Amino acid sequence: QVQLVESGGGLVQPGGSLRLSCAASGSIVSIYAMGWYRQAPGKQRELVATITNGGSTNYADSVKGRFTISRDKVKNTVYLQMNSLKPEDTAVYYCNADGRIFVGGVYVNSDYWGQGTQVTVSS
């Protein structure tokens, strides 16, 4: 169906920067929105940022002014530029796509998730 592959995670010091990428592939008819979510140890998965096909963005209050989400529609790739990273940003970051695919002779609307990439902010 649809595969989402994240990359760009790693270990950075507080105040540092990191850029995550997520490429979508498969029998995609259209993607309505893509986004990034994260899950820290002992916490529930939370929204970080989303971007619609029209370019509208939404950010969690905790990352506003520090993170920027962008999308390359031709490549079906979403990016997350993370600046001024804090230890509390440490989490597994997951890519999400809300789209429509053609599979088994039918069109299907669904959400798709990547495998996650680890981001660790520590000295």
| Pattern of helices and strands | EEEEEEEEEEE
CA-to-CA gap between the ends? 40 Å
Instruction: Give the overall average pLDDT.
Output: 94
**DSSP E strands, number:** 11
Structural class: mainly beta
> What general form does the structure show?
elongated
Q: For the CA atoms, what is the radius of gyration?
A: 15 Å
Indicate the proportion of strand residues. over 45%
Largest sheet: 7 strands, mixed
Contiguous uncertain segments of 5+ residues = none
What count of helical segments does DSSP give?
A: 0
Please estimate the helix content: under 10%
Explain this structure.
The protein is mostly beta strands. The chain has no helices and eleven strands. It has strands spanning 2-7, 10-12, 18-26, 28-39, 46-52, 57-59, 67-72, 77-82, 91-103, 106-113, 117-121. Strands 2, 4, 5, 6, 9, 10 and 11 form a seven-stranded mixed beta sheet that branches. Strands 1-3-8-7 form a four-stranded antiparallel beta sheet, with no helix packed on it. β9 (91-103) and β10 form a beta hairpin. The protein starts with a strand and ends with a strand.
Can I get a quick summary?
The chain has 123 residues and is mainly beta. 0% of the residues lie in helices and 63% in strands.
Question: Helix and strand layout, with pairings?
Answer:
Elements: E1 2-7, E2 10-12, E3 18-26, E4 28-39, E5 46-52, E6 57-59, E7 67-72, E8 77-82, E9 91-103, E10 106-113, E11 117-121
Parallel strand pairs: 2-11
Antiparallel strand pairs: 1-3, 3-8, 4-5, 4-9, 5-6, 7-8, 9-10, 9-11
